Amino acid sequence: MDHSGHGMTMDLPPFTLGRGFAWSADPFFLVACLLGLALYGWGVVRLVRRGDKWPVGRTVSFMAGVLSVALMMCTKLNDYGMVMFSVHMVQHMVISMVSPILLLLGAPITLALRALPPAGRGRKGPREVLLMLLHSRYMRIITHPAFTIPLFIASLYALYFTPLFDTLMGSQAGHIAMMVHFLAVGVVFFWPIMGVDPGPHRPGYLMRMLELFAGMPFHAFFGIALMMASSPMVKTFENPPASLGIDALSDQNAAGGIAWAFSEVPSVLVLLALLFQWYASEERQARRSDRAADRDGDKELAAYNAYLASLNTRGG
Question: Is 171 helix (H, G, I), strand (E, B) or coil?
Fold first, then answer.
């Protein structure tokens, strides 16, 4: 029985990291990853040729994000993930919580807006369409915490604890759709919190931290529920192939441990990114204030000193 369409998953030998990382490309994700890298590379080259600078860190981060998706979907991990709950959970957690963070730190929308040429007066090109989308009501809704946090949580509970998961895992198209969904949910959840790109919903740094911690405990609870279960909870993984030499319940417990552990990893990554962004923002604000003071001869300070002098005169 070939679930994934590119590997005989029923005859897989016992899982090892070496076997898991062997090449086994899903055509959809292979093309998507190559296209993503090519478009981003085109944007960077265009800026550099124009004499503009683009931070190397952003390029490295975006490439790492794309490669993390490729590692999960274009290796044997994708085959093992069709029959092993623990491997599937690694795929889910990386694609929904690590890949989006790395992609967002690469600022692909900012790069596109800077690299794409304006279409000219009265015409609409790719840059104008992107700007329209960024400012649309649709984008305001899907990046609002009242939408992103419930969606982030439902992607776990409503998927795994209902027959929907088994239905999607029953076909290659369903499996691809599910993985694309995980990536999209991660992007819309983390974008308002720590994304570098402009967006319709951009709260203060304290609110961003609250948004982050509002979603993470539910991941931990989900992991604990899988670890504590006394019987397999997901039909797809009830009867793993004998060739794997694994027990369905212990594999489910391992999947729960992975989900629980991953609730901490992005929290730390995002918190570090947020603190760095906050510090950089304060530094920019301080530099702006200094430049303004230099331009106007520090009028604000002079006015304040004059005010103190007037108080002293009145007091005298």
Answer: coil
pTM of the model: 0.84
Among candidates 146, 143, 150, 145, which has minimal Cα distance to 199?
143
pLDDT, tens digit (0-9, with 9 covering 90-100), for 273-300:
778 777 777 777 767 766 666 666 666 6
- Smallest CA-to-CA distance from 26 within 41, 39, 9, 14 is with 9
Confirm if 271 and 212 have CB atoms less than 8 A apart.
yes
Return the axis-axis angle of helices 56-73 and 85-93, rounded to nearest 10°: 160
For residue 165, give the nearest of 222, 247, 224 by alpha carbon: 222
Amino acid at 72: M
3-state secondary structure of 239: coil
The pLDDT tens digits for 163-210 are 999 999 999 999 999 999 999 999 999 998 887 888 777 777 788 888
Nearest-CA neighbor of 95 among 37, 20, 155, 27? 155
